[in-house]
Amino acid sequence: KESNVIAPYRIERVSRLKLSFVCSLLFEHFFLLSLHRASCLEKLGDQTAMIEANLQSRLARSSFDKNCFQNVAEKPHMECEVEMVTPLVSNPGHVCITDENLYFQPLNGYPKHVIQIKLNRVRRIYKRRHCLRPLGLEVFCTENDFCSDIYLKFYNTADRDEIYYYIATFLENHMTEHTAESYMLQWQRGHLSNYQYLLHLNNLADRSCNDLSQYPIFPWVLADYTSAQLGGLTANRWDVCGQNLRVVVVLFCLQARYRGMPEPRFMYGSHYSSPGYVLFYLVRVAPEHMLCLQNGRYDHADRMFNSIGETWKNCLEGATDFKELIPEFYGNDFSFLENKMSLDLGRRQNGSLVIHLMLHRTALESQYVSEHLHEWIDLVFGFKQRGSEAVAAHNVFHPLTYEGGIDCDSIEDPDERIAMLTQILEFGQTPTQLFCTPHPQRITPRFHNITRSSSINSPVSELSPVSQSEDSSFEDLTDESRKLAWANMSNLTRVSSHKIHKDYNRYSCCLYHSPVSLFIPDSTLKMFSKELKEFQRSMSFSNMALSSCLMLADGKTVACSSWDNNVYFYSVPYGRRQDTLMGHDDAVSEMCWFDDRLYTASWDSTVKVWQCASDGSSSHKRSQCQLLAELEHDTGVNTAGLSPAGTLLVSGCKDGAITIWDTSSYETLQQVHCHAGTIHHAAFSPDSRHILSVGADFCMKVIDVQTGMVISTVKAEEEQRCFCWDGNSALCGGQSGDLLLWDLLSSTVTKRIPAHSGAVTAMWMNDLCSTVITGGEDRQMIFWNLQS
């Protein structure tokens, strides 16, 4: 228009495809015109004629041009009309997928006549929301980049899904599907940086650099941009209310407006991520997009992005500015802060922007941010994003920003529907909710050391007066030995095997500080010498099978549980039964021991806690055990285990529920229904932060102790009956009889070791993780050692 200004232009309603195509062509040419001098406008008539001719010739194309196939032998699977999504532009065309390639042919021939992606190069594909509707598909040919190779918007979900599942099936052997839970476990364990984890969460939450209304979101992590030292920021900006009176006033005004609103109410009139906010940061590298949003002009110089500190202050103290940051602030490329195009943006910035950018990256990976990042994730991607938790956290935005807030397809009036879609695109969209329960905290080095020192009892500290540094060195050496053992667990080698039972072995264990192993269960307890490789002793307690056994802390007494509801105590030095504990109304399934307390799990739906102590007599007979607590469950308890420090108890039931108990108060801390059948085995990780469970549903679940969240689910090809694990890897006994070494961070089997001819039902590992004993339904006991 006159004065070199771009403004809206009214056109008659045309077909959807033609309208989309016209808009994309107009955008391409209008940006070029906006950069020209007024003298160039006289060429507009010629360009308009060219566009019209181009339009007519290309609209005549109603399907994909198969002459563009790279191979004449290619077999097309399907094709349909789509739009290629790029920032602020959706370019219409046709997509065609064959048994070798994915093709997109834009109607206007931009950016090229045909875009081709080889299917064997694809590493990741994601279904996307577009305008809060399930119409998008994004394809990546790299593992770590957050910019994709192509983003397509379909006109119906069925076409999108057909192409998605076709590619997923074709790439089944070439790609690994990751979930938010699997990334969470890697992040918690320190295998992903905070930056990498946030990129993965953004990607899973439908954020894309091709869609400015759903651009990736990153948090503010610095509270002070004037100090020479890093200052950590809390997840919620309202947490600093006590430090800033203006923030208190802003919050009060927003709350008052919220309370006075009719339903649906919202606290914020703008969003924390929108095309305008994204381009506010990226104007120096994407000026054409800013010109498009600002009607051909740049914003006033005072409102341009010139200072990170001033921007943070406006967000903290303003009642209309709530923007978050973008990934570029934490990357290694500072070019988005540099005016390399010599654009006339008003007042120029100094070098402080780049300095603050380097501080951002340092602060993001700091211990303070690592310990508090989960709180921000709760607000943006987690359980505080919606509902009553969002209200309590002052985290309620306009209803149109949430998925499901409105059904645009149900709006019959086309003008009203277009207006609604435009509002959604320009206002911003809340990310897809990834977590519905509190996000667990990251395991930082400081917390890990505290947990380790409290949960590993060094025998050196108990037997000799050593210094704290020596004790710490011993623990470090032991810890390193365990890590080395697990790193070489694939080298586990069979030493010997022994068939000594009539029926299959339900359980096996090894005597501590003794060259003797205990094996059960028909109705007898059998002792086997590991040194002499021969049978030593056999003891019968009941006419029913024994279910489990364990060595008590004195190293001289064995407790055996039975299907006859009793627990039997056996003295190894005296070779006879000491006592019988009749404590349950059904079979005792498993036991565990810590200090002087015995925990017995039973199919009568209880776990009972007993205090047992020796009376010190010459017969070494034990006194009557005193019942301390009875922990009720809904169904029979099939497995139970203690944390290394003995402060937590986990129980697994026949209904698939995991329950975590505080052993000092006997209160329930968490209850998680995570399996679809009986839980075979559950155990804490060495740092007590996680629980691994296996069940009859073929699933392996990793549960965060602090939050009760299932942070990883692995679906195996066979039932896993028992296991030992170190928090990252698990050695499991399978239904097939093999031992399977699992990498839980990637959900893959790294080694399959042939072992038994029937299901592996029991497994024991020594403290240094260098010796393993397994028992199976083939009535065999197998000894294993790690070979260097």
TrEMBL record:
WD repeats lie at residues 581-611, 630-671, 672-713, 753-788. Keywords: Repeat, WD repeat. InterPro entries: BEACH_dom (IPR000409), BEACH_dom_sf (IPR036372), BEACH_Domain (IPR050865), GRAM (IPR004182), PH-BEACH_dom (IPR023362), PH-like_dom_sf (IPR011993), WD40/YVTN_repeat-like_dom_sf (IPR015943), WD40_repeat_CS (IPR019775). It comes from the Eukaryota. The keyword Transport does not apply. Residues 455-471 have a biased composition (Polar residues). Residues 71-168 form the BEACH-type PH domain. The keyword Repeat applies. Residues 455-474 are annotated as: Disordered. CDD domains: Beach (cd06071), PH_BEACH (cd01201). Residues 172-442 form the BEACH domain. PANTHER family: BEIGE/BEACH-RELATED (PTHR13743), PROTEIN FAN (PTHR13743:SF123). This is Neutral sphingomyelinase (N-SMase) activation associated factor. It comes from Scophthalmus maximus (Turbot).
